[in-house]
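Support request from a user on the community tier.

User writes: "When I paste my structure tokens into the form, the page sometimes reloads and wipes my input. The last time it worked, I copied everything first. Here is what I submitted, just in case something in the input itself triggers the reload:"
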């Protein structure tokens, strides 16, 4: 997971996130050292010098993770629109598991789905109630197309949904109002694609 972005934070919280030994010493936790990855989520953690508990707000052990998606297909009986990619079959009642990943984890988080529907949208689903912050991830790249976690200026909003069981992000391919730039269409319908979570 990730450390809180405000409020109380303890030595134990830091050790739970990044690992380490007892007794806990902050000098174990410099960014880019053996325990804390040098990632965007950890930019407030110094690489040398003075270090304090407040430097760790939003920090995360998560790093870049690359996965091969073996594309499966599911076609909704009511709408007739096919979805491609991977779904673990637990997100929406009545939708079976389709597709697969070579590795179902991103750090300590289970990937429950990465799927797209023709020229409509792409969706990433991660296990657990996660924050919509860079401490979880900053974006994904699939088949050479980039989908940032937060919309760049002029782009359509990225939809974020958090439930007690899972969290999802949804990038639209189409802007019916024609006032914003949509995200690149992912047209792969079979075989494999490479997905990188950053």
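"...and here is what came back when it finally went through:"
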């Amino acid at each position: 997971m990730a450390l809180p972005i405000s409020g109380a934070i303890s030595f134990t919280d830091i050790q739970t996130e990044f690992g380490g030994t007892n007794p806990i010493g902050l000098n174990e936790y410099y960014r880019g050292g053996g325990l804390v990855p040098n990632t965007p989520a950890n930019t407030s953690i110094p690489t040398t010098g003075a270090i304090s508990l407040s430097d760790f707000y939003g920090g995360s052990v998560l790093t870049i993770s690359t996965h091969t998606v073996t594309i499966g297909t599911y076609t909704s009986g009511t709408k007739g629109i096919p979805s491609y990619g991977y779904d673990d079959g637990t997100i929406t009642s009545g939708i079976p598991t389709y597709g697969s990943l070579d590795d179902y984890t991103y750090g300590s988080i289970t990937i429950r789905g990465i799927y797209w529907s023709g020229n409509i949208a792409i969706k990433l689903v991660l296990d657990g109630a996660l924050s919509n912050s860079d401490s979880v991830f900053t974006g994904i790249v699939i088949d050479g197309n980039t989908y940032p976690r937060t919309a760049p200026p002029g782009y359509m909003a990225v939809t974020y949904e958090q439930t007690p069981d899972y969290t999802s992000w949804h990038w639209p391919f189409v802007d019916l109002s024609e006032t914003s730039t949509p995200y690149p269409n992912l047209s792969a319908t079979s075989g494999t694609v490479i997905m990188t979570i950053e």
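Agent notes: The reload is a front-end session timeout and is unrelated to the input. The two ends are 14 Å apart (CA to CA). The CA atoms of residues 30 and 47 lie 5 Å apart. Escalated to web team.
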